Amino acid sequence: xxxxxxxxxxxxxxxxxxxxxxxxxxxxxxxxxxxxxxxxxxxxxxxxxxxxxxxxxxxxxxxxxxxxxxxxxxxxxxxxxxxxxxxxxxxxxxxxxxxxxxxxxxxxxxxxxxxxxxxxxxxxxxxxxxxxxxxxxxxxxxxxxxxxxxxxxxxxxxxxxxxxxxxxxxxxxxxxxxxxxxxxxxxxxxxxxxxxxxxxxxxxxxxxxxxxxxxxxxxxxxxxxxxxxxxxxxxxxxxxxxxxxxxxxxxxxxxxxxxxxxxxxxxxxxxxxxxxxxxxxxxxxxxxxxxxxxxxxxxxxxxxxxxxxxxxxxxxxxxxxxxxxxxxxxxxxxxxxxxxxxxxxxxxxxxxxxxxxxxxxxxxxxxxxxxxxxxxxxxxxxxxxxxxxxxxxxxxxxxxxxxxxxxxxxxxxxxxxxxxxxxxxx
Length: 426
Prior knowledge:
The chain has 426 residues and is of the alpha/beta class. It has helices spanning 15-25, 43-54, 69-77, 94-105, 123-131, 144-155, 178-193, 209-212, 221-226, 233-239, 268-277, 291-299, 311-327, 351-355, 370-378, 383-386, 391-404, 412-425; strands at residues 2-3, 35-40, 62-67, 85-90, 113-118, 136-139, 165-171, 197-201, 241-244, 247-250, 280-284, 302-307, 335-341, 364-367. The protein starts with a strand and ends with a helix. The protein has 2 domains: 2-155, Response regulator (Rossmann fold, 3-Layer(aba) Sandwich); 165-425, Rossmann fold, CATH 3.40.50.300. It is built from 18 helices and 14 strands. Helix content is 42%, strand content 17%. Helix 2 (43-54) crosses helix 6 (144-155), helix 3 (69-77) runs parallel beside helix 4 (94-105) and helix 7 packs across helix 17 (391-404).
């Protein structure tokens, strides 16, 4: 029996409540392809179930919410099959509730699971319900993470391996260095934590991960996407190229022998397969906007938007952040990285002025240094391999800490401002 005051987790509360919801939702696994129908008696409960149905983790599930409680459910299922899961809200006391459920049992298919949302904190009632085949009893007001956690528990194997986290990197504009940051952060995570990382370059025609890691694999992301029906752990492993002890690359072909037009779910199979075998899956997403990029970004566990400090980047970053906030209402907002700061003779928007309309604090600010970054790119090396003491290496570590939650990340301004001073003194 789950009894939790959900008021602070409601989507209509202040930002602190939304942050708490996002933190709680990080532990919730994606829900498999099931059908769910809810019959509610109150608007707050119905709203929470509807919010759950809109969450990215419920993308495969089909959710419908009705009003009317158990009696409406009995009437509905008298002439219709029951779904995989029925969620019922009831204000009735123990005796009346048991009587209503007896009526439901006459029309409910044996294979369907039933979750009751009640308004009475009664342990005896809870035990009676569980003994009579009810899957779970929640006490209103319900917290959405609790509800989704119950659904995941009912339909996921308790022995299922944990899923890896997906980190999506995208630029607010072309040429802002999003791919370079994605590659170096993936490298940092693998080195800092000795944790396996899979880097997938999703820019099939123009991807640069193979160049930046000095790799020339015969196969990669193209074979994974175009053979999605064959996708499993063994097939994916054959497509990977080893970049370091704990870093594997799913490289883009970077050739123009065909056009690359994909359906919205084209990358879903390969990403889900990668999550089953790798703790961290880093996605280098190209700067385009279509069905598949929107789907990949919307379903990622964390998103990093890279921008340079000019007006076009600010406009694009604002549009991108606002869109992804709406698409992922129960997740943390995208992270912001400001790159190529301090470029000589270029007018810039200050970091504070850039971040303010986005309502974000940059997790890293990286100064312009074409010498080191250019040398690393031309030699197929990471920045840490080119100059281990370069200030940007600390920034990449900082981003790695922030995305993995392994330790408290240091503030962005400290490392960045120090780097700016060094460049100004030269």
